[in-house]
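Put briefly, the fold is written as integer tokens. One such record reads:
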Amino acid sequence: MNRKTNRLITVCMFLCLSVYVMASSKDSTSQRLIHIIGVDFRPAYTFPTNGFFKGANAAQTPVRKTFSGYVKYGFKFAPDTYWGRMYPYAIQGLGVGYNTFFNSSEIGNPLAVYAFQTYRIASITRRLSFDYEWNFGASFGWKKYDKETNPMNNVVGSKINAYINFGLLLNWQIDACTNLRAGVGVTHYSNGNTGYPNSGVNTIGGSIGLIRYFGSKEKLELYDRRYATYRNRDAFKPYISYDLIVYGALKKKGVFPPESSPVLVPGSFAVGGLNFTPMYNFSNYFRAGLSLDAQYDESANINEHIANTVGSVDAENIRFHRPPLKEQLAVGLSVRAEIVMPIFSINLGVGRNILCKGADTDSFYQIVALKTDITKNLFLHVGYQLYKFRKPNNLMLGVGVRFNAKR
């Protein structure tokens, strides 16, 4: 089941970009693109969040450093198109990266495949700017925990893990076709509770790289003033849109029987949910609002319904009484903020369950999600939910419909 689940996660992540590219091929603006090729190198420090990283491993050596290299293809919309006028500095595309923690026998050397987007935060000089970039995808080739062959790796429980990176960059335009970029970034690897252990791997480090544009010199201008007139004609008027999202996922669950060691429950549990989010669109770049969130979690509060609580309990003999629906269904309210870009939107939320029962759902929750536009009104949703700002809960793989959407 884990292998199938991980494959599903990977397919959903990259279906986002591929579906949009196919759909947008019918749009005349998508035919006028500026293409880029880039490379990045990132030396980084691994946070010692687990004893394994501090030296409690087979090599008896702390895992403190990591190094990765990336190659990527991207594109931006030409400045005489609608999207080029609205978002003149946006670049989006796909990348591939190789990573090593210098402990391949226990961790592996994972290969990441990801979607990315970068944009300018502020101009410093005519050729120097302050930018950001995010990466979101999957990483393959991890050496996961195995009680016989890899017993000390109590960090990674899956051969495939989600890959998330966010970086801040100084972008220097060397000439019309070439940019040199350097900065700092943070990276997180996790399987979204589809397998155990799932402590997560977190790094922080530097980045240096080059991007090369291909196209006519006229198109390669990062922002040409002659198009400002057209851009100003697209005056933005604030409005309210409404997002309706339906999602699902599978997750693993660990429980703590009395008088026994913690037990990883065999199999996987289903998660399903619905979000209804009115969003006030402040500008082309930002919207925010309140969300009504309902989620059913088949694993919620099962720790309180263990049937065999006397004697030793393990994964082979543990049994449960099914919790009542009111302990597995929670309804909450969350505050949402969303960064809006061509194709992609990044949604962040902090909320509190208000209709709930049991320790697993009676708490604050946090959401990080990537929305990928397929049409003006339809988008794919790939999200991740945390509880209490630190505990991974579940993935949120779904589809959404946007009402009253405007270009």
